[in-house]
Specification:
InterPro entries: Peptidase_S1_PA (IPR009003), Peptidase_S1_PA_chymotrypsin (IPR043504), Peptidase_S1A (IPR001314), Trypsin_dom (IPR001254), TRYPSIN_HIS (IPR018114), TRYPSIN_SER (IPR033116). This protein has 4 helices and 14 strands. The protein is mainly β and 323 residues long. The strands form 2 sheets. A 6-stranded antiparallel β-barrel has the order 1-2-3-6-5-4. It has a 6-stranded antiparallel β-barrel with strand order 8-9-10-13-12-11. The longest helix is centred in the last third of the chain and has 13 residues. The protein starts with 23 loop residues before the first helix and ends in a 17-residue tail after the last helix.
Length: 323
Amino acid sequence: YKVLRFQSLHFLCVLPFVNLHPYVSLLVCGTPLNTRIVGGQDALAGSWPWQASLHRFGRHFCGGSLINKEWVLTAAHCFSSPSTSNLVVYVGRQNQKGSNPNEVDRGVTQIMSHPNYTRSTNDNDMCLLKLSSPVTFTNYIRPVCLAAPGSSFHAGTTSWVTGWGTIRSGVSLPSPKTLQEVEVPVVGNRLCNFNYGVGTITDNMICAGLAAGGKDSCQGDSGGPMVTNQGTRWIQSGVVSFGKGCALAKFPGVYTRVSQYQTWINSQISSDQPGFVTFSSSGTDSDLSVNLSPSLRISLYLALFIFPSMSPSPCCGKTSPTA
Protein backbone atom coordinates (compact mmCIF):
# COMPACT_ATOMS: atom_id res chain seq x y z
CA TYR A 1 0.00 0.00 0.00
CA LYS A 2 0.97 3.52 -0.68
CA VAL A 3 0.87 6.91 0.96
CA LEU A 4 -1.01 6.89 4.26
CA ARG A 5 -1.60 9.28 7.15
CA PHE A 6 -1.96 8.85 10.91
CA GLN A 7 -5.49 8.71 12.20
CA SER A 8 -7.67 9.90 15.05
CA LEU A 9 -9.82 7.28 16.74
CA HIS A 10 -12.58 6.77 19.26
CA PHE A 11 -13.80 3.69 21.07
CA LEU A 12 -17.02 1.75 21.01
CA CYS A 13 -18.68 0.17 24.01
CA VAL A 14 -18.42 -3.60 23.49
CA LEU A 15 -21.19 -5.76 24.92
CA PRO A 16 -20.94 -9.52 25.49
CA PHE A 17 -22.00 -11.57 22.50
CA VAL A 18 -25.00 -13.84 22.96
CA ASN A 19 -26.36 -16.61 20.78
CA LEU A 20 -28.82 -14.84 18.48
CA HIS A 21 -28.64 -17.34 15.63
CA PRO A 22 -29.46 -16.88 12.79
CA TYR A 23 -29.05 -13.09 12.95
CA VAL A 24 -25.82 -12.79 14.94
CA SER A 25 -23.68 -11.86 11.90
CA LEU A 26 -26.02 -9.02 10.93
CA LEU A 27 -26.12 -7.66 14.48
CA VAL A 28 -22.36 -7.56 15.03
CA CYS A 29 -20.98 -7.11 11.51
CA GLY A 30 -18.87 -4.13 10.59
CA THR A 31 -18.27 -2.78 14.10
CA PRO A 32 -14.52 -2.62 14.87
CA LEU A 33 -12.91 -1.80 18.21
CA ASN A 34 -11.20 1.27 16.70
CA THR A 35 -13.01 3.28 14.03
CA ARG A 36 -11.38 5.32 11.25
CA ILE A 37 -11.58 9.07 10.86
CA VAL A 38 -8.51 10.10 8.86
CA GLY A 39 -6.35 7.00 8.38
CA GLY A 40 -2.91 5.69 9.18
CA GLN A 41 -0.05 3.68 7.78
CA ASP A 42 0.08 0.75 10.19
CA ALA A 43 -3.42 -0.29 11.16
CA LEU A 44 -4.09 -0.45 14.90
CA ALA A 45 -5.02 -3.80 16.41
CA GLY A 46 -8.77 -4.26 16.27
CA SER A 47 -9.25 -1.69 13.52
CA TRP A 48 -10.21 -4.19 10.84
CA PRO A 49 -11.28 -7.31 12.80
CA TRP A 50 -12.64 -9.10 9.71
CA GLN A 51 -9.28 -9.09 7.90
CA ALA A 52 -8.04 -12.60 7.11
CA SER A 53 -4.60 -13.78 5.98
CA LEU A 54 -4.43 -16.84 3.72
CA HIS A 55 -1.32 -19.00 4.00
CA ARG A 56 -0.07 -21.90 1.93
CA PHE A 57 3.07 -23.76 3.02
CA GLY A 58 3.53 -21.21 5.80
CA ARG A 59 3.52 -18.12 3.57
CA HIS A 60 0.91 -15.38 3.13
CA PHE A 61 -0.38 -15.22 -0.44
CA CYS A 62 -3.82 -13.57 -0.33
CA GLY A 63 -6.19 -11.69 1.93
CA GLY A 64 -9.82 -12.29 2.75
CA SER A 65 -12.63 -11.13 5.00
CA LEU A 66 -14.50 -12.96 7.75
CA ILE A 67 -18.25 -12.80 6.94
CA ASN A 68 -19.57 -15.05 9.71
CA LYS A 69 -18.11 -17.41 12.28
CA GLU A 70 -17.01 -20.03 9.75
CA TRP A 71 -16.83 -18.47 6.27
CA VAL A 72 -14.25 -16.20 4.63
CA LEU A 73 -14.80 -14.22 1.43
CA THR A 74 -11.86 -13.90 -0.96
CA ALA A 75 -10.98 -13.85 -4.69
CA ALA A 76 -11.30 -16.84 -7.02
CA HIS A 77 -8.02 -16.03 -8.78
CA CYS A 78 -6.16 -16.79 -5.52
CA PHE A 79 -6.72 -20.50 -6.22
CA SER A 80 -5.63 -22.53 -9.21
CA SER A 81 -7.23 -25.70 -7.82
CA PRO A 82 -9.84 -26.67 -5.19
CA SER A 83 -7.22 -28.40 -3.03
CA THR A 84 -7.25 -27.35 0.63
CA SER A 85 -3.91 -29.04 1.37
CA ASN A 86 -1.58 -26.92 3.54
CA LEU A 87 -4.07 -24.03 3.46
CA VAL A 88 -4.42 -22.07 6.71
CA VAL A 89 -6.53 -18.97 7.43
CA TYR A 90 -5.52 -16.53 10.18
CA VAL A 91 -7.96 -14.02 11.69
CA GLY A 92 -7.16 -11.49 14.38
CA ARG A 93 -3.64 -11.22 12.95
CA GLN A 94 -1.78 -7.92 13.08
CA ASN A 95 1.77 -8.77 11.93
CA GLN A 96 3.13 -11.39 9.58
CA LYS A 97 6.31 -11.54 11.70
CA GLY A 98 6.50 -11.81 15.48
CA SER A 99 3.76 -12.49 18.02
CA ASN A 100 0.03 -12.08 17.41
CA PRO A 101 -1.71 -12.55 20.78
CA ASN A 102 -5.20 -11.95 19.37
CA GLU A 103 -5.11 -14.31 16.40
CA VAL A 104 -6.56 -17.73 15.78
CA ASP A 105 -6.01 -20.03 12.82
CA ARG A 106 -8.18 -22.53 11.06
CA GLY A 107 -7.81 -25.03 8.28
CA VAL A 108 -10.16 -24.96 5.29
CA THR A 109 -12.60 -27.72 4.36
CA GLN A 110 -14.04 -26.20 1.16
CA ILE A 111 -12.93 -23.77 -1.54
CA MET A 112 -15.98 -22.59 -3.48
CA SER A 113 -15.16 -20.34 -6.42
CA HIS A 114 -18.00 -18.61 -8.21
CA PRO A 115 -19.22 -20.92 -11.00
CA ASN A 116 -19.09 -18.09 -13.56
CA TYR A 117 -15.59 -16.91 -12.70
CA THR A 118 -13.59 -16.26 -15.87
CA ARG A 119 -9.83 -16.16 -15.33
CA SER A 120 -9.09 -14.39 -18.63
CA THR A 121 -11.27 -11.40 -17.74
CA ASN A 122 -11.48 -11.68 -13.93
CA ASP A 123 -15.26 -11.38 -14.12
CA ASN A 124 -17.03 -12.89 -11.07
CA ASP A 125 -13.70 -13.05 -9.21
CA MET A 126 -15.16 -14.29 -5.94
CA CYS A 127 -14.58 -17.29 -3.71
CA LEU A 128 -15.84 -18.60 -0.37
CA LEU A 129 -13.73 -20.59 2.10
CA LYS A 130 -15.35 -22.75 4.77
CA LEU A 131 -13.24 -22.91 7.91
CA SER A 132 -12.51 -26.21 9.61
CA SER A 133 -14.32 -25.02 12.75
CA PRO A 134 -16.12 -21.83 13.84
CA VAL A 135 -14.22 -18.92 15.37
CA THR A 136 -15.37 -17.00 18.44
CA PHE A 137 -16.01 -13.30 17.96
CA THR A 138 -13.84 -10.96 20.05
CA ASN A 139 -12.77 -7.32 19.89
CA TYR A 140 -10.18 -8.45 17.31
CA ILE A 141 -12.19 -11.05 15.40
CA ARG A 142 -15.61 -10.24 14.01
CA PRO A 143 -17.38 -10.24 10.64
CA VAL A 144 -17.74 -7.43 8.15
CA CYS A 145 -21.11 -6.38 6.74
CA LEU A 146 -21.59 -7.02 3.02
CA ALA A 147 -23.08 -4.56 0.54
CA ALA A 148 -26.63 -5.61 -0.33
CA PRO A 149 -28.13 -5.49 -3.83
CA GLY A 150 -29.22 -1.97 -4.67
CA SER A 151 -26.26 -0.38 -2.87
CA SER A 152 -24.90 2.71 -4.61
CA PHE A 153 -21.25 3.77 -4.44
CA HIS A 154 -20.96 7.04 -6.31
CA ALA A 155 -17.66 8.24 -7.76
CA GLY A 156 -15.59 9.76 -4.98
CA THR A 157 -17.07 7.61 -2.19
CA THR A 158 -14.38 7.24 0.48
CA SER A 159 -13.26 3.64 0.85
CA TRP A 160 -10.53 1.75 2.70
CA VAL A 161 -8.47 -1.21 1.56
CA THR A 162 -6.36 -3.36 3.90
CA GLY A 163 -3.74 -6.07 3.51
CA TRP A 164 -0.17 -7.27 3.79
CA GLY A 165 0.77 -6.95 0.12
CA THR A 166 3.86 -5.37 -1.40
CA ILE A 167 4.24 -1.61 -0.84
CA ARG A 168 4.99 -1.18 -4.54
CA SER A 169 5.56 -3.60 -7.38
CA GLY A 170 8.31 -6.00 -6.36
CA VAL A 171 8.98 -4.36 -2.94
CA SER A 172 7.88 -6.39 0.09
CA LEU A 173 6.31 -4.92 3.19
CA PRO A 174 9.16 -4.43 5.73
CA SER A 175 9.30 -6.46 8.95
CA PRO A 176 7.33 -6.95 11.14
CA LYS A 177 4.95 -6.74 8.17
CA THR A 178 2.13 -4.95 10.00
CA LEU A 179 -1.33 -4.86 8.44
CA GLN A 180 -1.58 -1.82 6.15
CA GLU A 181 -4.53 0.42 5.38
CA VAL A 182 -5.12 2.91 2.59
CA GLU A 183 -7.91 5.37 1.83
CA VAL A 184 -9.05 5.49 -1.80
CA PRO A 185 -12.04 7.08 -3.54
CA VAL A 186 -14.38 5.09 -5.76
CA VAL A 187 -13.84 5.66 -9.49
CA GLY A 188 -17.01 5.33 -11.57
CA ASN A 189 -17.28 2.35 -13.90
CA ARG A 190 -17.66 4.54 -16.99
CA LEU A 191 -14.39 6.38 -16.36
CA CYS A 192 -12.63 3.20 -15.24
CA ASN A 193 -13.75 1.46 -18.43
CA PHE A 194 -12.30 4.24 -20.59
CA ASN A 195 -8.97 4.02 -18.75
CA TYR A 196 -8.63 0.24 -18.97
CA GLY A 197 -10.14 -0.22 -22.41
CA VAL A 198 -13.79 -0.36 -23.33
CA GLY A 199 -15.44 -3.58 -22.19
CA THR A 200 -12.85 -4.48 -19.54
CA ILE A 201 -14.87 -3.29 -16.54
CA THR A 202 -18.18 -5.10 -16.09
CA ASP A 203 -21.14 -4.42 -13.81
CA ASN A 204 -19.65 -7.06 -11.48
CA MET A 205 -16.66 -4.80 -10.77
CA ILE A 206 -16.02 -1.57 -8.87
CA CYS A 207 -12.90 0.61 -9.17
CA ALA A 208 -11.10 2.79 -6.62
CA GLY A 209 -7.95 4.91 -6.64
CA LEU A 210 -6.53 8.37 -7.33
CA ALA A 211 -6.25 9.83 -10.84
CA ALA A 212 -2.64 10.73 -10.04
CA GLY A 213 -1.91 7.26 -8.64
CA GLY A 214 0.09 6.69 -5.47
CA LYS A 215 -2.51 4.74 -3.48
CA ASP A 216 -3.62 1.22 -4.33
CA SER A 217 -3.67 -2.44 -3.43
CA CYS A 218 -0.77 -4.52 -4.74
CA GLN A 219 0.58 -8.08 -5.03
CA GLY A 220 -0.39 -10.13 -1.97
CA ASP A 221 -3.52 -8.08 -1.31
CA SER A 222 -5.78 -10.11 -3.61
CA GLY A 223 -8.98 -11.30 -2.00
CA GLY A 224 -8.85 -8.67 0.71
CA PRO A 225 -11.69 -6.26 1.47
CA MET A 226 -12.50 -2.76 0.33
CA VAL A 227 -14.91 -1.25 2.86
CA THR A 228 -16.91 1.94 3.29
CA ASN A 229 -18.27 3.46 6.49
CA GLN A 230 -21.98 4.10 7.02
CA GLY A 231 -22.94 5.30 10.50
CA THR A 232 -21.51 2.82 13.02
CA ARG A 233 -20.93 0.06 10.47
CA TRP A 234 -18.35 -0.81 7.84
CA ILE A 235 -19.72 -2.36 4.69
CA GLN A 236 -17.61 -4.35 2.24
CA SER A 237 -18.11 -3.01 -1.27
CA GLY A 238 -15.33 -4.86 -3.05
CA VAL A 239 -12.85 -7.75 -3.11
CA VAL A 240 -9.33 -6.96 -4.35
CA SER A 241 -9.17 -8.41 -7.87
CA PHE A 242 -6.78 -6.93 -10.46
CA GLY A 243 -5.10 -3.82 -11.81
CA LYS A 244 -2.48 -2.53 -14.21
CA GLY A 245 0.62 -2.50 -12.04
CA CYS A 246 0.16 -0.89 -8.63
CA ALA A 247 -0.93 2.71 -8.00
CA LEU A 248 -0.27 3.88 -11.56
CA ALA A 249 -1.86 7.15 -12.67
CA LYS A 250 -5.24 6.70 -14.38
CA PHE A 251 -5.34 2.98 -13.56
CA PRO A 252 -7.27 2.51 -10.31
CA GLY A 253 -7.51 -0.84 -8.57
CA VAL A 254 -10.35 -3.07 -9.73
CA TYR A 255 -12.48 -4.96 -7.21
CA THR A 256 -15.26 -7.52 -7.40
CA ARG A 257 -18.53 -5.71 -6.63
CA VAL A 258 -19.93 -7.49 -3.56
CA SER A 259 -23.49 -6.18 -3.94
CA GLN A 260 -23.94 -8.36 -7.04
CA TYR A 261 -23.55 -11.62 -5.11
CA GLN A 262 -25.99 -11.88 -2.19
CA THR A 263 -28.02 -14.61 -3.91
CA TRP A 264 -24.96 -16.74 -4.67
CA ILE A 265 -23.37 -16.24 -1.23
CA ASN A 266 -26.59 -17.13 0.61
CA SER A 267 -27.06 -20.18 -1.62
CA GLN A 268 -23.73 -21.51 -0.32
CA ILE A 269 -24.17 -20.57 3.35
CA SER A 270 -27.32 -22.17 4.75
CA SER A 271 -27.06 -21.08 8.40
CA ASP A 272 -25.90 -17.89 10.13
CA GLN A 273 -25.98 -16.08 6.81
CA PRO A 274 -23.77 -12.98 6.48
CA GLY A 275 -25.12 -9.55 7.30
CA PHE A 276 -26.07 -7.71 4.11
CA VAL A 277 -26.57 -3.95 4.48
CA THR A 278 -27.60 -1.45 1.80
CA PHE A 279 -25.11 1.39 1.29
CA SER A 280 -26.59 4.55 -0.20
CA SER A 281 -24.52 7.39 -1.63
CA SER A 282 -26.01 10.85 -1.44
CA GLY A 283 -26.29 13.35 -4.28
CA THR A 284 -25.69 12.74 -7.97
CA ASP A 285 -23.07 10.33 -9.27
CA SER A 286 -20.50 12.40 -11.18
CA ASP A 287 -19.60 9.32 -13.24
CA LEU A 288 -22.88 9.77 -15.09
CA SER A 289 -21.57 13.03 -16.56
CA VAL A 290 -18.42 11.46 -18.00
CA ASN A 291 -18.29 12.69 -21.60
CA LEU A 292 -18.58 10.13 -24.35
CA SER A 293 -17.31 11.27 -27.71
CA PRO A 294 -19.07 9.79 -30.75
CA SER A 295 -16.07 7.55 -31.46
CA LEU A 296 -16.05 6.26 -27.88
CA ARG A 297 -19.77 5.58 -28.06
CA ILE A 298 -19.22 3.49 -31.19
CA SER A 299 -16.26 1.66 -29.58
CA LEU A 300 -18.29 0.92 -26.46
CA TYR A 301 -21.21 -0.44 -28.48
CA LEU A 302 -18.98 -2.63 -30.66
CA ALA A 303 -16.99 -3.98 -27.72
CA LEU A 304 -20.01 -4.79 -25.58
CA PHE A 305 -22.50 -6.06 -28.14
CA ILE A 306 -20.91 -6.84 -31.51
CA PHE A 307 -17.35 -8.06 -30.79
CA PRO A 308 -17.22 -8.82 -27.03
CA SER A 309 -14.35 -11.27 -27.50
CA MET A 310 -12.18 -8.42 -28.84
CA SER A 311 -12.36 -6.39 -25.62
CA PRO A 312 -8.92 -5.84 -24.04
CA SER A 313 -7.86 -8.29 -21.35
CA PRO A 314 -7.06 -6.93 -17.91
CA CYS A 315 -3.53 -6.96 -16.60
CA CYS A 316 -2.25 -8.58 -13.50
CA GLY A 317 -4.13 -10.04 -10.58
CA LYS A 318 -2.90 -9.07 -7.14
CA THR A 319 -2.08 -12.43 -5.67
CA SER A 320 1.47 -13.09 -4.52
CA PRO A 321 3.70 -15.54 -6.41
CA THR A 322 3.22 -18.18 -3.68
CA ALA A 323 -0.52 -18.58 -4.35
